[in-house]
Each structure stands twice: as structure tokens, then as C-alpha cells.
Amino acid sequence: MSQCLLFLSNQSFVSRFEEGRREPALHCMSMNADLHAEQFDFAIMRRRLKSWYKKKGRELPWRNLDDPYRVWISEIMLQQTTVTAVIPYYERFFNRFPDVRSLANSNQQDVLALWEGLGYYSRARNLHKAAQVIVAEHGGILPRSADALQTLPGIGRYTAGAIASFAMGQSAPIVEANTLRLYARLLGMTDDPRTTAGQKQLWNFAEAILPKKNAGDTNQALMDLGSLVCTPREPDCPNCPLLRFCRAAELGKQAEIPRPKQKTKITELQDICVAILDGKKVLLRQRQLNERWAGLWDFPRWTSEKALPKLSVSLLPRASLEQSIITEIRERTGYEIDHGPLSEVIKHSVTRYRIELFCFTAKKVSGRKKSGEPLEWVPLKDLDDRPLSVTGRKFAKTLQAGGLF
Fold first, then answer.
1. Is 68-251 a domain of CATH 3.30.479.10?
2. Looking at the annotation, which residues are catalytic?
3. Residue 23, pLDDT above cutoff 80
4. 111, 261, 366, 382: which is deepest, by most CB within 10 A?
């Protein structure tokens, strides 16, 4: 067996003297005697990272700040989102909420409105909740330790480590998508790094590679190295400052490591939404906590139990479909409607769902709002002031353009 069996426990690190300094090196246990006993020299790795980062590191608006609040917001925004997409949101957010108190004192709807289009809206709801906790329980100051930060809504181990290291200089490890890939390749991990055992190994490595002081730059350098050089496909190994320490490169397995995630099974859905107009007002419904896009507003919407002809508007079973929509709207809202035309079909994806949204228009005829339902009549001109789902916003723009009836 030629694979290097690495383990990262307290006993895994042997000390060596490097230029008069006592530094940890990772001990590599192997079934073969011809493999290196010590794969990593963290002192050299840090020096190379520092030199590379000084020349190649990304310039981002949330870098080189000692403001934990700004670092926190940027890290939450960057979850599941690209840097390019985040920058304009980041700038607008701080124009509106320059500090934690302004965020805590705001209305959640205002926060969601600024978040609209960024997706994963639970992040925005948790930001608002956490800001209120910070003001109420911590005097408006973010906790300084990574452990304390993790007690706040929406802050996990990675985000806590990022805030503690970037804004406070603490030696807090981080593992996210880019460093997971980098560390897995350095370690030569052929097993799934997302398992409990794999995560433990990666977090131990992330902790070992950090200096005791001013760890923020090292973490930033590692993230940038993963993003810019140690890319998912065709990594730029010749220009990697850590190439000599990379087990995956030594084995020629960069394309295989890390093991890819198991593909999520995609479920196809067909949803129907109806814009019901009463003069110049349209009926909106606020989505609830047990629903996707909780807190946002949308037109009455549901998943069709019967398959509709995909994108074939002319083939829709008009009479039976119209009656089913009239009945559904009556049960959901309490209103009787005069069914109008199909406006558009919007295709979109949400996590493990691929959705075709059939957008209809209708006019209110009679009825009263169903008791207990979060429904509201909103002037068409005021739709821009409501936080809507992405598809809801697209349909709203069509409505505002007019000419649907």
C-alpha cells in the first residue's frame, strides 16, 4: 500500500528546529518506509504563503479591516455566493446599516429588501437576529472569541474563525470551500473530506498551519491560494508556493482530490402563481417560516399536482386549468376571481428543485380576505418597496409594465 496514512492528533506533530525556532511539522505515518517521515514544515510554508500573498493576494473591500462587524457581514454574504456578486450588496448594506446597532434597530423587512436577489435568505434573517443579540447581551460589541461568536444565530465554526482571525488577529482556524480543496490536496486525502473524520483532519491541519499571532493574513493567503491557484479544475501547480509540500501533486492526483460531492437528486416541480388585481392594487402574500423565502413577499403560489405541458402555453388545458385555479385561489385567499391570461413561464432552480413557474393574471370579483392568511393589497407602484423572491420580482416588473389584460 503506497498511500501515506496521515493522522492529525496531538501526537502527530513532532518538533524540529528550523533557523533557531521550534516549529511543528506534520508527522506522516506510512505503510512504506520509502515515504517521507515529515511532510510539512509549517514555518517554511508560512513564509512562502506570506511572500505569495503580498504579490498575488486579492484586493477586496472587506480586507485589512479591524472592524469585526464588517468582516462578519462580508463573510455571511460570501457563503454560497461569489465575490463578484457580493461586492455591490456589501456596499449597499453598509450605506444603510453602518454599524451593528443600526442593523439591530431595523425592521427585518428592510434587511430582506437589501438582500433581495442574493439568495439563501435565512442568512439575512439570522444577521438581524444576531445583531439584536449582540446589542442586548454584548453591549453592541461582537464577542472576541471564536467559541463565543458561535453562540450567535447564523455563525458557525468557519465564520467565527474568519471574524476572530481577520478582525482580531487571533489564531483561529478556518475551513471553507477553497481551503478544504487546498488542504485535501496537500494531505493527499483520497477519502471524502466532508465526513466527520475528514473534517476533523482538515480542521486539525488548519489549526496547525497557523502562526500564534497575526493569523488573519495567513488565513486570507490560504483562501486566496485555493481560489486563484488550487482551483477545482486544472490547478496552476507550477505557480503554487506550496507545491513541494503537496501530496496530491506528488501522486499526480490533483484531478481526483478532493473526492467530489455526491450529486444531489434534482426534483422537477411545476408551480403556479397568480397576480390578482383590484384596480391598481395587487394581492401579495408573505411567505412563512416553514416555507422557502420566509419573510419575503410573493403572489399566491403553489405546486401543481397535475403535470402541465412544459413551456407549451398553447397546449394548456384552458377550461379545466382555469377552474382549478379559481378554486385554489378561493380556498387560499377567500376571493373570487375572473381568470386572466398566462403571462409568462419562468424557469428557476432552488437547492434540489428545478422549477417551472406558470405566472397567471386575474381580477378580483368579490370576497373577503381569508382569516389568518398573511395577505395584503399593495399598489403596483409600491412593489419596489417590498422584498420579493427573484421570480416574484421578475413577474412584478412584467405587471408594472402593463398590458396584461
1. no
2. 75
3. no
4. 111
